[in-house]
Write a structure and sequence with these properties.
By secondary structure, the chain is of the alpha/beta class. The protein has helices at residues 30-42, 51-62, 66-77, 84-103, 121-130, 147-161, 180-197, 212-216, 221-235, 261-270, 288-304, 320-332, 344-356, and strands at 14-23, 109-116, 133-140, 169-172, 202-208, 243-248, 275-279, 309-312. The chain is globular, with a radius of gyration of 21 Å. Bound molecules: the ligand C=CC1=C(C)c2cc3[nH]c(cc4nc(cc5[nH]c(cc1n2)c(C)c5CCC(=O)O)C(CCC(=O)O)=C4C)c(C)c3C=C and fe (ii) ion (2 copies). One of its GO terms (biological process) is heme biosynthetic process.
């Protein structure tokens, strides 16, 4: 049992919001990548192969080579302040905190943690409790639920709680793949990009893949991605031939969700498509999988196959409409936890904004 959870008479009761992202290495080096990849790929939620078979593969074939190869990729996208995933997550947390302070009379504490690496969920949860958070709303920064991302983060939270004598009350957000304000922010992002750079022949809506077997076992992720893609296309009034939903980041030899982004782009290049724009709505922050795998690798696949122009549309990152959406999602899950202290005026304003952006559910 952790000592931080000891009950003290007269403690202040606060509400907290904990944003959880996947996690990222501390540095773009093989030394930093090794423990990161080891922890990530040892999680049975991520790799569902029996341990007896997986262990020799991980330790014999992956950990001796992948850290160096991945570190080289991270080097290409590393920001002066650190890993893009961490930099954007940190900024989003600060902006959400400020937005909730503006919207609510009694705003919650807002923090973020990484499921792998730092700041760890353990440290942040203990800190929130030490600061008096008796109620914590957990929001994974994955709009589409997958067992390998969302459930892995929730497992971590509940494992930490299982060691506490005095647990906080917990609420969790499963997913927000079809939330009107999230879809509106995505649509606005694309429209802004097109106003500045013109339109493509095709919009590629690319999501992180998962093994095909996870869909067969009942993971709703594929369905959630398809719905986000369809709602985004509807908000942009695109015909079926003007967009494609596909899946990137295949890991290993097994079949993953199809169509694969790389294969789709190669085919479009071969058929001499003039211009494609790629957006990755499953990532709310730019990261290795968008800045390197899409903006660099996928671009080269398309151009080498014969395509002309490739544009990568950045993630939502610190966009105001996305922070508004995150605040809407947060507030809708805090009912009864803030003594009804929502400023009605601010809520109406943000609803009006979302409607104006023309999102459909
Ligand atoms: C958006 C949700 C994500 C799902 C679902 C997901 C599943 C998944 N990922 C791997 C393997 C790797 N993913 C890696 C990086 C990575 N993955 C996500 C998100 C999801 N992954 C993000 C945001 C990132 C980027 C992290 C960053 O630091 O920028 C990596 C590490 C990089 C590398 O070496 O390629 C691996 C490995 C599996 C196997 C999986 C589902 C089973
Ligand atoms: Fe991943
Ligand atoms: Fe589906």
């Amino acid at each position: 049992m952790t000592s931080k959870s000891h009950y003290q008479h007269g403690s202040r009761n606060r509400t907290g919001v904990l944003l959880i992202n996947l996690g990222t290495p501390d540095a773009p080096t093989a030394q930093a990548l090794r423990p990161y990849l080891k922890e990530f790929l040892s999680n049975p939620r991520v790799i569902e192969v029996p341990r007896l078979i997986w262990w020799p593969i991980l330790h014999g074939f992956i950990l001796p080579f992948r850290p160096k190869a991945s570190a080289e990729k991270y080097t290409k996208i590393w920001m002066p302040e650190g890993s893009p995933l961490k930099v954007h997550t940190e900024r989003q947390t600060k902006l959400l905190r400020e937005m909730l302070q503006a919207r609510l009379k009694n705003p919650p504490m807002v923090e973020y943690a990484m499921n792998i690496g730092k700041p760890s969920v353990t440290t942040v949860l203990q800190n929130m409790q030490a600061q008096g958070c008796e109620r914590i709303l957990v929001i994974p920064l994955f709009p589409q639920y997958a067992a390998s991302s969302t459930a892995a983060a929730m497992d971590n939270v509940f494992m930490i709680l299982s060691r506490m004598r005095n647990q906080p009350a917990i609420r969790t957000v499963k997913q927000y793949h079809d939330h009107p304000a999230y879809i509106a922010a995505l649509a606005h992002n694309v429209r802004d990009y097109w106003s500045a750079h013109g339109r493509p022949d095709k919009l590629i809506i690319s999501f992180h893949g998962t093994p095909r077997s996870s869909l067969d076992k009942g993971d709703p992720y594929h369905c959630a991605c398809q719905k986000t893609g369809r709602l985004l296309a509807e908000a942009l009034t695109l015909d079926a031939n003007q967009y494609t939903v596909c899946f990137q980041s295949r890991f290993g030899k097994a079949k993953w969700l199809t169509p694969y982004t790389a294969v789709t782009l190669e085919e479009l290049g071969k058929s001499r498509t003039q211009r494609v724009d790629v957006i990755c709505p499953g990532f709310v922050s730019d990261c290795l999988e968008t800045l390197e795998e899409i903006a660099i690798e996928a671009k080269s696949i398309f151009v080498q196959a014969g395509g002309k122009e490739f544009h990568y549309i950045p993630c939502l990152n610190e966009r105001n409409d996305w922070i508004q959406a995150l605040a809407d999602i947060t507030c809708s899950h805090l009912h009864g936890w803030l003594d009804n202290e929502v400023s009605e005026e601010a809520t109406q304003l943000s609803r009006k904004l979302a409607l104006e952006m023309g999102a459909k559910s």
